[in-house]
Amino acid sequence: MHPHCAGLSGQWPCNSEKSQGRHFGGRHPRLPDRQQGPEGSFPPASGSRGPQWCDWRLGGCDRRQAAVQKSGATEAEGGGPSARRLTRRTARPFRGRAVCLASRPARARNCGKRGREGHMICAGLDIGGTKIEARLFDADLQATHSHRVPTPRASADAFFAAVGEQVAWLRERAGADLPIGIAMTGVVEPDTGLAQTANLPISGQPMAERLTAVAGRPLPVMNDSMALAFSEANGGAADGAAAVVGLIFGTGVAAGICVDGRPAARYGGIAAELGHCGMPARALDRHGLGLWRCGCGRDGCIEAYIPGPGLIRLAAHMGLGEIAPPELAARAAGGDAQAEAVLATWADLSAEALEILQMTIDPQIVVLGGGLSQMPGFVERLEAALPARLMPGTPRPILRLARHGDASGVRGAALLARMAAAEQPWTC
Ligand SMILES: [Zn+2]
Does the structure show a pLDDT above 50 at 121? Predict the structure, then answer.
């Protein structure tokens, strides 16, 4: 896999140049040598006629750089009119468009069926700690088929074998090769291409090589929270918003960032691991809570308090015993004061987490996903609790549930794969 696809650390046209010069003090993963699939594969192998895998990224940067040079201004200064025009184009949110692969080799041209508007069908793998789900999407990015298998936890070999079988299922179901992206927990380090994840048996594995071995070519990989933000910013609950955070309340808590319709550039691929930021001391003091141990081995992480397991623990701590969140919500709706107190405490703690996002990222819209987000009254409780936690005078982000539900993350990965397989408006 191309390290620039892996981990989705924001290696998008022009953004990488900006970050190299402005934000990271010149340290930025260098553009790696292109990696090609085997002869006749999709994308076309080296030496084939037509665009090469990931050329759309490199080409975009090259073109913008040329425009900047032509204008006589430096990249840091933003360049002249032609450069600014290109900048506006790159900042345009992706809306999809008819793509023409006429210059691709015949076999690649046949890969990816087309819908009535010319978009390719595409697919994604949603990889979590319990299941690997393959989803096929039509040209309008609507899920049409899915196939779920348990996630092998015993070894990396078993894990990648299962991934290969799911890729084969997608190709067989589609009747051809097609763009396939992966949304998974954890990250792929931009510099090394090595996976780092707590819930899968693949930490330290070279993703590009392992995926190529089972799928025949590299597959773009996104962190699942980044994929959620990316999906919802393109045809979802945050469509058209300039700054979007996707926030997953599942077994843990994690956030992804999407700016101008594209995943935001990051340095090491870990942002925004909100769940492993510390819960503010003022919040713990307010509710008389101690420093609870987090799964990462540290104490007092946000993830220890507000995702599904955190809420269950909170209910037990407040005297309700083991109770599942849906039952807790039902009891609160039925007038149970104790259940209502637990949910009020949870909402207040969650609002503290949202306030951290607001003060550090300042999103226009926060799209909420994950299993706990399906709890009745989830958004309403957060909206009610948030104002009291915001610093006076600061803007309040809009909270929305993910429009594409539990398929949103894998939809984002599929969209990324489709975009990588086609020339994009901002690069051509
Ligand atoms: Zn932690």
Answer: yes
